[in-house]
Amino acid sequence: MNADPEVMEHFPATLTRHESDALIDRIETRFDEYGFGLWALEVAETGQFIGFTGLSVPGFNAHFTPAVEVGWRLSRSSWGHGYATEAARRALTFAFDDVELAEVVSFTSHTNLRSQMVMKRIGMTNDPADNFDHPLLDEDHPLRPHVLWRMTAERWRNGTR
């Protein structure tokens, strides 16, 4: 999945097997560190691995950090089936009901319209004044402009699910 150029289109580069394994190690460490992280996603009927979703803490400084992010990455064959939306909603339920966070953010490259549609479907809101240039990307990198979406616990509990 991480080596697929279409899946990784809105990331700076695809990942090698070694880099993907290192990512998994970091994900597992985050569970110990924060008590939450990114979960493996499987199709309920088949058990087929299709990607991941969950909560993470951004590793950079920006106007909205420190923060907790809801994120996802799915294999290309899993796109268009509603899995990202369903999984992201479940992650938000966990964030607000179990972890008791006050707010969760999500962000992506301004070109990643698929993920932005998921953010919209799960009830997150975007204020264009919140959009930012990703500090870990070079100033001339085409993916540097990012959009920021937000969801508060109050809005979530008031039925924005």
From TrEMBL:
It comes from the Bacteria. Transmembrane segments: none annotated. PROSITE patterns: GNAT. InterPro entries: Acyl_CoA_acyltransferase, GNAT_dom, N-acetyltransferase. Pfam families: Acetyltransf_3. Residues 1-154 form the N-acetyltransferase domain. This is GNAT family N-acetyltransferase. The lineage of its organism: Bacteria, Bacillati, Actinomycetota, Actinomycetes, Streptosporangiales.
